[in-house]
Amino acid sequence: MGKNSLHVLKGINFTVSEGEMVSIMGSSGSGKSTLLNILGILDEADEGAYNLDGTLIKNLNERVAARYRNKFLGFIFQSFNLINYKSALDNVSMPLYYQGVKRNIRNEKAMHYLEKVGLADWASHLPNELSGGQKQRVAIARALASDPKVLLADEPTGALDTKTSYEVMELIQGINDEGKTILIVTHEDDIAHMTKRIVNLKDGLIIDDSTVKQVRAKSAANV
Amino acid sequence: MSKLFSRDSWSEIIEALSSNWFRTVMTAFGVLWGIFILVILLAAGNGLENGIKQGFSGMATNSMFMWSQTASQPYKGLPKGRRYNFKTDDVAAIKQNVPGLRFVSPRNQLGGFRGSNNVVRGLQTGAFNVYGDYPEIIEQQPMDITSGRFINYSDINEKRKVAIIGSGVVSTLYDPGEEVIGSYIKINGVNFMVIGTYKKTGQNGDPEEMQKEIYVPFTSFSQAFNMADIVGWMAITAKDGFSITELKQQVFDEIKTRHSIHPDDDRAIGNFDLYQEFSKINGLFTALNFVAFFVGILVLLSGVIGISNIMLIVVKERTKEIGIRRALGATPWEIRSQILLESVFLTIISGMAGIIFATLILAAVNYQLSTMDTSEMMFINPSVNIGVVVIALLILIVSGLLAGLIPAQNAIKIKPVEALRTE
């Protein structure tokens, strides 16, 4: 953090309603990651207001911010960000651990989400024993574990090949079908078109915000 | 606080520490070594102390010896340079007028270092110290009665001519295997019946000379050797809770008034304060203990600094992990307490290992010592008491917390965004 502040976002105004699946696109440096960090309460905007589920997110101390992150948000990262020395199951149950859920209930829930992403058989494996796609699926299960309102995905397919990308997207679409709000940052067009709405950023401003016809990942994979 | 006892936070800690075994062990070694040195130093100091104090074993250390010298100042028309003697009446007067005294034993002596032969038995002769004593003296200057008995008050009251002789006397005057008890020896021409033998232990004085002493009742001594009511010197012991060093001035004042000595004439009465000497030795060991603590804690400190260093590196390495945890909803306090617990846990475990290691070494040394005769040794039973171990543990917990404090603070200073950005 230098002394010279850089204004990345210069006026963003948009609303995402419950159950939406939005992709944020833009070239590198357009401010899409910064936007996502603000939405994820990892960073705070200098100006403006951010309402999450009717709560104004402003000037939170770290303790409250951590609680909100835990309660409202699930994160999916490009580099998966699993904890290396913990098994897939323990990784998934981590948000529940910070919620103070008891161990056996926690493991039960985590197992449920691992089943959901099709990795129940890999529960006891360490992340480095899993493939990239599997890791991302564990990360998705982890993001879902605390049953958040919103799922934030930062280039979820950035480190995956096309086939695996589509598999992951198929999973994410399935989660959206169940009613979860999902925001995806990506610069890949095909991935963006698998969402229902595309927000285009350029130099910190929204240049385009349009609803698109969702391409199902399953059918795309078969092309 | 509930986190302290939850299985989850402990398994978190174990997982984190065991993810790099070698480093954990190496770090732990610093503290292990520190506490090991601390315990061993304290134990060695203790062993030395035990050894030295064995020399005083059983001796009433709260004692002084007092003898008459010549008056150095004229007083009440009496000239300076006047000689005087303590009298048996003085003993009763001191007992009566100075509270807090346990024993006041008048003593007389015959013979002395390299004196001429004064004891005869048949054809054998020898030069020995002969003391006229009261039964209490055995409490003040302990000896082992190896056969027979020591002087008692019947001997004193009836002025019996009986004697207790040392093993050195026995070997000079008797043939091996000869019956000692009930035989007679002639001291300066007066026959005394031997009723007991003794052996003295301890390192004070000449161990051989100590066995060459003969004890007879004070009253018989006075009568047999024409001492009248003269008292050669006195051995005075204070009661527990009183200090002879504080009481002795009252004793001197009593003597001065009874013998018309100038109140400021300190040279008229000679004395040897055993308690003062003992206090000096005690002071020495206090200093020794202090040095042991000082050195031990400094060594421990360097170990703790090692832990702190490693924890800093651990935090640096786990920046990303900490970022992930915080993104998943860990509060700063949860992160901080985890780092602190890891540090304290590591410190305590390695400290305990150090204590156990040191205890094993001490047990081995003690076992070796137990197979030897320690009565003449300067080093006995090196040990630390449980209180010291508890103190060491407290120091460990505190230092573990201190070691973790800076790294933990560093860990929560990193913002989650930055932590996640680190690739």
From TrEMBL, chain B:
Residues 294-416 form the ABC3 transporter permease C-terminal domain. Pfam families: FtsX, MacB_PCD. The chain crosses the membrane at residues 21-44, 290-315, 344-365, 385-406. Residues 24-251 form the MacB-like periplasmic core domain. InterPro entries: ABC3_permease_C (IPR003838), MacB_PCD (IPR025857), Macrolide_Exporter_MacB (IPR050250). The keyword Endoplasmic reticulum does not apply. It is a multi-pass membrane protein. Keywords: Cell membrane, Membrane, Transmembrane, Transmembrane helix. Belongs to the ABC-4 integral membrane protein family. PANTHER family: ABC TRANSPORTER PERMEASE YTRF (PTHR30572:SF4), MEMBRANE COMPONENT OF TRANSPORTER-RELATED (PTHR30572). This is ABC transporter permease. It comes from Aequorivita echinoideorum.
